[in-house]
């Protein structure tokens, strides 16, 4: 195997000062790293990826029974060609699940992001999916919370400095993803940053994930058993830009090959506002403030930051549930500019 292109961080080394220093370097310099010794074995990861293959092999009809179009809460299945990133269609199919919750009736919504709260969609033809994926969600949730605390410690602030934004459990969102092979080079998912605190990615043995570094795209080759971790926009905000949410993308595999991955996004509670941490002088001198992109304003209020991403990614769901008057009024009260203006011709009026 070639030398890894990104830092490799061992979870068990994060009690020592030198381990924390390596973590800080990886998270502030690249914003991407491999995580090993995290407690989920390679075999167990293979089992989850097998389960994912089984899901995508269900019939079109079975997958459509849990299509995201049935969920105002952005949960469920997206067929190829129903997701946009950076304004272009992604060549991937996916199944999204989040915290299992009860929906709030429209009449009781006071904030637009509250519409994200709701139940997941589970296929009746695969009863084992819900318990397995719920278990995975719990395991990854624990790993990411632990990692967030170690990151805080690495920044010289209280390890628990962000715990109040998470409450009893963080907001979590996960995806089973299948990238089918393509004749021509194509975006599996276009260049983007992730919105939450931290993302963990479990990849199979196919390459395709790339991260932007000094204007170049670096391949994040799979290392058996390792997760890929990246810093999300909320952590960039909390560290005033010291930690970096880095652009990344997936290029489709060649014809005849397919790539499977499972992505797990951990964020603060949707109701939380993320504080800017008071870093020690030596680090704050190197914090350049969060990056400013007029097409992608970073919002410290978590719910709206998450909602903004979902509205743009899944425009068929947005048109169905967020373009009617009640939702538009709610959105207009929370955003300086309607985040659906570029999605629906009626909303541009
Ligand atoms: O599939 C992957 O390896 C990464 C996916 C990703 O970046 C995302 O869904 O945000
Ligand atoms: Fe991502």
TrEMBL record:
Pathway involvement of the protein, from the record: Alkene biosynthesis; ethylene biosynthesis via 2-oxoglutarate
Domain of life: Bacteria
Similarity comment text for this entry: Belongs to the iron/ascorbate-dependent oxidoreductase family.
UniProt entry tagged with the keyword Magnesium: no
Name of this protein: 2-oxoglutarate-dependent ethylene/succinate-forming enzyme
Catalytic activity annotation: L-arginine + 2-oxoglutarate + O2 = guanidine + L-glutamate 5-semialdehyde + succinate + CO2; 2-oxoglutarate + O2 + 2 H(+) = ethene + 3 CO2 + H2O
Pfam family membership, one: DIOX_N
Organism: Idiomarina baltica OS145
EC number: 1.13.12.19, 1.14.20.7
Domain Fe2OG dioxygenase positions: 170-268
Lineage: Bacteria, Pseudomonadati, Pseudomonadota, Gammaproteobacteria, Alteromonadales
